[in-house]
Amino acid sequence: MLLEALFSVRTLVLLAVLASAYLLRTKRRPLFPVLNTKDYVSNAATLIASGLAQHQGPITLPLPNAQKIILPSSLTSWVKTNKNLDHRELVRQDFYADYPGFEGLTAMHSVFMGDFILDVIRAKLGQNDSIMPVLNASAKKAVQAHWGDSKEWHAIDWHNGTTSIIARVASSVFVGPEKCDDEEWLALVQAYVGAYFSAVGELHAYPAWSRRIVQRFLPNAVACRKYVAEARVIMNGVVEKRRKDVTEATLEGRTPPAFNDVIAWTEDAVSAARKPEAGDIQLSLAMAAFFTTSELFRQVLIDVAMHPEIVAPLRDEAAQQLETHGISVAAIYNMVLMDSVLKESQRRSAAIGML
């Protein structure tokens, strides 16, 4: 009886504290005109455009449990040069870095890692001829695996197929030969990306003060913690196996195996004391690459299918550049028509999203 009474008292105290925190939390008065709307989810673009036109300056967009300040395009130069505006910190806050299970985002914005992951994307992935044949071979294998090469009309799994193709190609230089075609690993990282962004969206619906508590119970957030634990075990196994192979080869007088992927680049560039878990880095890269690239991949395929007259010129350009430069960064950079098609597809999809 005593224990039950104590438990009841503690429960009541906890509820009282939470209720007080909710009722007494600071109410900040908006600095700029507030758009009076509740249908921002379905009509945000129109509301923002009309609000900016009406007030001729910054406006406030009310969300269920937050407020966003929207700046007009006339302030673009000011934003670019204002050192007090930190996009990285905004992402950290809006996408809940440092929450358990969200280590993919935490690794990407870790102060210890600096711009390492961004540098990997810009330099190691964007200007590295040695990985081009790997990406090409992986793309061929991925398309064959998911769509086949039949010239007859047949059904495909559009969303999962496009996402899986991107995941396989990206993984060929993210995790290297050990796991790039491993179905278990590919399923894990894709599931993590989906669960993570779903969990973030769900957390936005709760008051800020409650999110760290709620996050412990949301199914997608719980799944994220499970995926992080599994990714760490798998990637630590890969790293340890590589270290063991290098040690054995050195002791036996053989040339140690060399790898040209993110795992190897991280091992060489980041000290052990400052390095996040290998699994966290891989999930971070998956978040950065899989979702956005898959969306672009799908949109480009749709746009090209709607304009079949562009197919032959694209093929001719690709054939010409590959004959001149081989499978290389130079060939990609000189595919001017391809670059224009990609940019126009992005522009059109963004414009459609604003309607």
Explain the layout of strands and helices:
Blueprint lengths: L1 H23 L15 H16 L3 E5 L2 E5 L5 H6 L5 H8 L8 H6 L7 H10 L6 H16 L10 H17 L8 H21 L7 H4 L4 H33 L10 H8 L8 H29 L4 H15 L3 H5 L2 H19 L1
Antiparallel strand pairs: 1-2
Helix pairs in contact: 7-8, 8-13, 9-11, 9-13, 11-13, 13-16
Strand order of the largest sheet: 1-2
CATH topology description of the largest domain: Cytochrome p450
State the end-to-end distance.
62 Å
Q: In total, how many domains does the architecture comprise?
A: 3
Order of helices and strands: HHEEHHHHHHHHHHHHHH
Under the CATH scheme, the architecture of the largest domain is Orthogonal Bundle
Instruction: Calculate the mean pLDDT score and round it.
Output: 84
Produce a short descriptive summary:
This protein is mainly α and 355 residues long. Helix content is 66%, strand content 3%.
Highlighted features:
355 residues, mainly alpha, Cytochrome p450, 3 domains, two-stranded antiparallel ribbon
